[in-house]
Amino acid sequence: MSNTDSICVHAEIAVDPAVAFTLFTDDISIWWTGVKDMDNGNIPRTGSLKFEGQLGGSLVETYPDRPPYTVGAVLAWQPGARLSFEWRPGSFAPQQTTYVDVTFEAVPAGTRVVIVHRGLDTLPLDHPVRHGFGRSLKFRTLMETHWLDLLDVFRQHASSG
Asked: Tell me: the pLDDT tens digits for 43-65?
C-alpha cells in the first residue's frame, strides 16, 4: 500500500451520532450537491444520491436524463455508529471499486464524523479522477480537499436543521 491508497478526513458536527448518521444517509442528495462533481470534471452536480438503508442495500445515483446507476453496495449499516459502502461512480470501469468507511463518534460538541476512502491505488494512473496527478501527493491532497469540502457542506446542513 502506498501513501495514496487511502485518505482520512474528519469533522465535528453539532448533533448527536444518531442524528448525524440519519442526516448523512437520508439527506445525502441535499448536502452532496453542494460540492462540484470531481469524478466528472468538477462540474456542478445535477443528479441525486440515495442509500437503500440496510446492509446489502445500494447507493444509487439518479439523473434526469439517464437510468439510475448503482454506485456500490452498502457493506455496513450501523445507525449512529458506522456506514461502509463501495464507491464506483460512472467514470469507473466495472472492475474498479474503492471503499468509503464513515464512523460517527460521540464527542462533547456532538459527533466526530471520520471518513476513510480506501482502494485508490486500484485506479490506473491515467484515470480521470486523478486529474493528471497519478499517485502523487497532489492527488492525495485533491482527494482530501474534496472530502473536507463535502464534510463542510454536511456540517452546514446539519447545523441548519
From this structure: 445 678 899 989 999 999 888 88
